[in-house]
Amino acid sequence: MKNFKIFSILFLFVLGLNSCSSDDDFTAETPEPTADFSFEAVADNPQLISFTNLSVDADEFMWDFGDETGVSTQKHPSYQYASAGNYTVKLTAMNGDNTSTYSEEVSVLGVPSAAFSYEVDEEDTYTVHFENQSQNVAEYSWDFGDGSEGSSEASPSHTYAETGIYTVTLTATGAGGTAEASMEVEVKDAQPAFSNVYIVGDASESGWNIGSPAAFTQSETNPFVFVYEGVLTPGNIKFSTFTGDWCDGQWINAAENGTSITQASGFIITQGCDGPDNQWQVTEDTQGRYRITVNLEIETINFEAQNAPYSELYLIGDASENGWNIDSPAAGFTQSSTDPFIFTYQGTLNPGEFKIATYTGDWCDADWLHPTQADASPAAGNYEAHLGCTGPDYKWRINEDTQGEYLITVNLYEGTINFEVQ
Predict the structure, then answer these.
(1) pTM check: above 0.70
(2) Domains of the chain
(3) What pLDDT digit, counting tens, does each position of 387-398 carry?
(4) Count of beta carbons in the 10 Å neighbourhood of residue 293
């Protein structure tokens, strides 16, 4: 009986040990994850996609956003795509060694951007061509800033009615929204290729000085027109568009070398010293004062001889050898063969007074040249011209201190008179 009790106790003890060993060896099974997600574009930024992770039974995640660049391990990431397009996004959901993959194509709309450039038409500077540089848009609305109807073309052209500065606005709309861009556009008259023209040559006042030649004057109403007035003497001329060194810029040359200024009509443009070095020619027969007009727009040149307002001048008065004889004065001024506006007289002036007639005949027939004040002394200055018997009858006065031999020079172009004691 005693042995039976001991055996029973041992049996129960062993049975208890076996029962404890079975509980310790039990392992719970890890569930299989299921990958899933949804997505939506962020408002006002369609290229930024927000992803919502819908996976179950997963505690780690790996995102591949399908653009060969973007990855993430966040549970609910957002991703900014660089450009619009269709991308296959893959989510791998993990739970221990167990994984699940889910893919879905995401259509990304581009962020709309509005941009444009413009250029002025080469032939009509009032016409502007616009180049649309917008992205991710499909519809366009142009406001040209001049109150006109505008345009819905992608890259329109517009002709303005007048010069000015206009604010042009492009509104561009696409699936991702609307964008706007504005720019000021200046519309102005056409401008010439050169802003300066100079006369150069031994027939001109400049000589062959390219460093500081005499300049033409650009027209205020037509920037393509340049005008020069001056005396041309026998020799040659051409025109530069620059100063400095002979080969620094472009030249305006005669179409044929040796062309007479009286036969000039057009010209050619040459670069630096590349030639041909064609020049216009001035002879003794064609020398004189000229008004030269260069029109860069229609490529013409015109030499217009300038005629003096008077062809003869006479000293009239008791201080001169002619006395008060207006009908047939004995001596007159000599007109320059080079510059028809220059008249000179050399003779003796005696005590008395004089004025200068521009004619012979009757006292009131034509213009007289007078000093600007009564009893003027023989000194350099300006003169006034009055018709016949009109205006103040001012005269130059010679006294015993100022009498003598004089060289008198009248410059009709500048309106001056000079007395040089001989």
Answers:
(1) no
(2) 37-108 (2.60.40.10), 116-187 (2.60.40.10), 198-305 (2.60.40.3620), 314-421 (2.60.40.3620)
(3) 999 989 999 999
(4) 17
